[in-house]
Structures
1.
Amino acid sequence: MEKEYVLQIAQTIKEQLVGITPAPVIMSWGITEFAATIYRDLPALRIKLNGRLHTGYVMIVLNGSDYYEVYLLSGSATECVSKEVCFDELGNVIDRAVESGTDQAEYEEFCRQQLGKLLSGQTA
């Protein structure tokens, strides 16, 4: 696979993800790295992050059906989050897997508690 093609696909994934996902959501993931790569013989964007539910890497892979596949990697463990994600769903799919989870009320309570700690000067 040509390097330029992989770089172009990774850049497109990043632009779609950052362009559609609200900034506070992306910031909550604790991203420290974006990297173009090849995963399972397909072009991909690798994100290193430190979310509430997942710390490690998220791999966003463009498959042959023009859908994205999303994987969580931590150490030697790999978990497939979804194999058919449209570009406009990427942020929500990743956020549920790495930060907010599926219980919206629980996550909102967590956020309220964190805000209270920040405002009172407590450390996390």
2.
Amino acid sequence: MNKILLLVVSAVALAGCSKPKELSPQEAWHNFCSVIPGAAVNIMTDRQQGVKEADALEHAKKIPDQHAQVYLQSLIKEAYKVPIYENSNQRQKALDDFSKGRDQECLKQAAQNK
């Protein structure tokens, strides 16, 4: 769960660290969305390892950007609709399926929030 927070905070921090050029909202979202597939894997890994949904949602509240926080919370809620699998092949399939295309989905969401 800390991996999710680290990925997102890193993306947000990297977007804010380089002061020479102020990022547009679109560029900031693009940076955020580029880490979402990895965050999705971490969210589903937490789900499959039995981390409680409330704990995952609590970690998402630490994200400073409100839109990013809401997006991650929706991702967490979606992940927790998937059952916990005992079989490692099923777990891996759940991870793969959950992370596939997430960056593009995130960018579509960003376009709707303009």
3.
Amino acid sequence: MSNHQPPPGGAPAAAVPAPVPVPRGEVSRPWRDALVAVLALLLPVVCAGCGHPDHALCPVCRSALAALPGRTRLVAGVRLDAAYEYEGLVRTLVLEWKLRGRVDVVGPLTRRTADLVRAALAAAPGAVVLRVPPSARGHRRRGFDPVVTVLRRAGVRHAPALRRLTAPRARSGVDDVAAAQTGPGTLASGPRIPTGQKERTALERVAATVGTLSAAGLVGQVGGRDVVVVDDVVTTGVTMAEAVRAVRVAGGRVVRCVAIASVEA
């Protein structure tokens, strides 16, 4: 039995561990293993969680991710289902994907979130799915919207986004963390609220966010309808609460919020 463990926060492992059995529930496919071996020679990769070579996410980190619990909290009186707590391994994977373009971790990271979106829609047949839009700065830097990726994996390909009226200073999550953190060690150092958020009181965060999202252009789609709102990372919850407010103003009923990860409230 290997003693290989994912270091806290995903710091690179000091030694190459012995082979680890495929996690329960995963079927070993010889053709896939052979392809991974060939690609490892041509395009060397390391595990985004622990630095183990030849795996985008090694079997041990994959098992650790699967064992992590989800998070449920209330935001503006609406149930929020997050696939994971935003800390440790999850935080590292989100940052590797969003800041470094590690698309090879998207599957393991977003699979559970896609399941939550499908479950929300099954519980509210006919509900409309709306995306919380990324900040303009974050979208320019990355060139993609992580929530779109999640929804595509859930089979929701044309979910409209709420409209961002201004650049909310209270916007929380990965975009604000990016500027102050570089390198594998700093990305994996644990959950932190962005400096801009920490310097504000709860009331100031709310005041800086209210009125920054709008569903006015979606009244025909959400008016009188159940709505599921999806975002990537929820920290203070003020942006998600603003999304709920915007939908209600447009006449919709938000019945569930879903996110990849949430900071413990």
